[in-house]
Amino acid sequence: MASTSYTKAHRILHWLIAGVFLFILLTVLLRQNWMNKTQVGAIVAQKLSDKGIKLSPKDAESIGKAVRYPMWRYHVWAGYVLIGLYLIRMLVFRLQGSTFKSPFKKQLPAKERFKSMIYVVFYICFGLTLLTGMLIVWLPRGEAFIEAHHIAKLIHIQALYYSVAFIVLHLGGLVLGELGKDKGIISKMIHGG
Known about the structure:
Keywords: Cell membrane, Membrane, Transmembrane, Transmembrane helix. The protein is mostly helical.
């Protein structure tokens, strides 16, 4: 892949997607850890208790949820941006071609096949994550949709695992490429070439 060059459109999309993707991961990590509704609620309940005001655990959790709600909105809006970028990326792939080879070609070396398969799996998972995110936000909340909403949420939550795995594989592949036969691959993604 040493001879690969990246168009300006591809590079801009790559970095925009990476930035928004990492921002969304940050909102997930913050919501699951530092801004966890139970922890925030417990802090609020403790501070109120210090002043002689009692708060039930359920009410405290509800307050914790309200405190982190703006972060949820950022997550949703960033998701809309990511949907747009994903669709543009698919259009660019269609018009300019993909930057990775089809993993289904028989003559492809094992290393290239593995690399290409990771990208195919990533884009499928990425699309599924965007779809389930839209379902979580847009499915009606009626009785008929409770199960569908629950399934969409379960699938969407799993995105954290493939996202982290992809980032680790991607960065590891870049380091191996820079140290091996693909010297300058990072520079090409920044400056073109």
